[in-house]
Amino acid sequence: MKRLSELEPGQKAIIHSFENDEIFLKLMEMGCVPGEEVTVEMQAPLGDPISIKVAGYQLSLRIEEAQSILVKTPN
What we know:
Layout (H helix, E strand, L loop, with lengths): L1 E2 L8 E7 L5 H6 L7 E7 L6 E5 L2 E5 L1 H5 L1 E4 L3
Antiparallel strand pairs: 1-6, 2-3, 2-6, 3-4, 4-5
């Protein structure tokens, strides 16, 4: 299991769970639900924020938000 923030641009993964309950609902409303495929599209030059593709659209996340999303990567 990895954190979404650990993925490199171009990598895909499946959302497994959330570590931080405070932003759980916010992320779920944005389409970040367990079982959903997510692709890291771009990362800002200093690493924050990152742009991901999830549920058919682009979403920017702060690195602290991405750290709370646990993902499974294909082997």
